[in-house]
Design goal:
Blueprint (H helix, E strand, L loop, with lengths): L3 E2 L49 E2 L4 E8 L2 E2 L3 E4 L10 H5 L2 E3 L2 E5 L5 E4 L1 H14 L7 H13 L16 E9 L13 E10 L13 E6 L23 H9 L4 E5 L7 E4 L6 E3 L9 E5 L8 H12 L3 E5 L3 H5 L5 E2 L3 E9 L2 E6 L8 H14 L10 E2 L10
Parallel strand pairs: 1-2, 11-12, 11-18, 15-16
Antiparallel strand pairs: 3-4, 3-5, 3-10, 6-9, 7-8, 7-9, 8-20, 9-10, 12-13, 14-15, 14-17, 18-19
């Protein structure tokens, strides 16, 4: 789903935004060993407490690195949101681009922390390898995200329980900026990290999870069995836009993909993984989390986190192929991306609708998992797993 571009908030004085001086390079060890920055004087948020849309807001600037002569160059701070690249760049002409998405949350004491950047760093390297781009050193990834957040701290929404006020969305983007006429990897690549304050895409923050209607896309295959669906490539998303738009025009907020080979098993939603919950057979038993096992789906940081939370609750976790018929038969009582129904083609000219849960709201077990996840992200619940980084927060004064 393409983010909606929203106008700047009237609370921002864009002409007088003065970002602090560029931070020194912090090429060092991964988060566990890297010195944290102590937040002594938290910069207050310039984002209102009203719920934010999942869209774009102009911020102070972004971080940029260029790969040339076989190595990554020095960090550059770029004010604003524009970038200049050759019209012949391999990214523009042949689609050599991959990206990540992670979030920074304001904590109860005003600190700002990123959620699981180590996982995003590893996944970006995987995607880069798939499209013949240089992998990023993990410490460079941390440094870039740290600087991008530190120099945009005033745009991090204020703290609210379970992240209800929103977060600072952090977008690392790696692309082949060098120009080539022949379809081949160039000699120049660019890595940027830009940010924007956003709300939740489907409203799953603040301990709430409004359920939406889903539609199964059956006339289009998102990823081939031995293709690149497991990498977060820009080219994986654009072909889905027209199908999403069609579904949205018919009242469906989210679209679901089945496996491309047989179209009998669940792969994932267009914008997130599919995770189901099996209701326990007896009252004294724990629920079971069901996660599709497929080489065509993206390895989601959120999914990995929810699996860890479910296991800490004593739940069973099944990683296996999930037949769509199992959903039709009511085998899954809830879905973590809160959906109240799934509509699919029963035949060429007939639709059928599967009701999930009570058909109106997210189920109680979904809410239980999401409350723990968003509570950790926003600092309302203890982070016993070390998922938020850095431990003592990001401080603009020490960046």
């Amino acid at each position: 789903m393409a983010p909606q571009v929203v106008p700047p908030s009237p609370d921002f004085d864009w002409k007088n935004v003065s970002p602090p001086p560029p931070p020194p390079l912090l090429l060092s060890s991964p988060p566990a060993d890297r010195p944290a920055h102590i937040l002594q004087h938290p910069r207050p948020s310039r984002v209102a407490r009203d719920p934010l849309a999942f869209g774009l807001t102009e911020t102070a600037g972004y971080v940029k690195y260029v790969w040339q002569d076989g190595a990554w160059g020095q960090q550059e701070w770029v004010p604003g949101s524009q970038i200049q690249i050759p019209v012949g760049s391999v990214a523009l002409n042949y689609g050599a681009s991959c990206f990540e998405g992670l979030k920074a949350f304001r904590q109860p004491d005003g600190q700002v922390k990123l959620f699981r950047p180590d996982e995003n760093a590893k996944r970006l390297c995987h995607s880069a390898h798939i499209v013949s781009m240089p992998e990023l050193p993990q410490d460079l990834f941390y440094e870039a995200c740290h600087t991008a957040v530190a120099k945009n701290l005033q745009f991090v929404p204020p703290h609210a329980p379970h992240g209800a006020a929103g977060s600072l969305y952090v977008r690392p983007l790696l692309f082949a900026s060098g120009a080539e006429l022949v379809p081949m990897a160039p000699k120049t690549f660019t890595f940027v990290v830009w940010v924007t304050p956003t709300g939740s895409l489907y409203g799953t923050a603040g301990g709430k999870a409004p359920a939406v209607d889903a539609f199964v896309i059956e006339e289009f295959d998102r990823a081939a069995p031995r293709g690149v669906g497991h990498a977060k490539l820009a080219g994986n998303y654009a072909p889905v836009f027209r199908h999403q738009q069609k579904a949205k025009s018919q009242g469906y907020a989210i679209t679901l993909h089945l496996d491309s080979q047989n179209r009998t098993h669940i792969d994932e939603f267009s914008t997130s993984n599919f995770i189901g919950i099996k209701k326990p057979a007896a009252a004294d038993e724990k629920p079971t989390l069901v996660v599709p096992a497929s080489e065509s789906i993206l390895k989601s940081v959120t999914t990995k986190s929810l699996i860890g939370i479910a296991e800490s609750f004593g739940w069973q976790v099944e990683r296996r192929p999930v037949p769509f018929q199992e959903v039709i038969d009511g085998g899954l009582s809830e879905a973590i991306t809160p959906i109240k129904s799934i509509t699919y083609h029963l035949s060429a000219d007939k639709l059928d609708k599967i009701t999930i849960g009570d058909g109106e709201n997210a189920g109680p077990r979904t809410l239980e998992l999401l409350a723990e996840l968003t509570g950790i992200q926003a600092g309302d619940r203890k982070d016993e797993r070390g998922w938020t980084w850095p431990a003592e927060g990001i401080d603009v004064a020490k960046a």
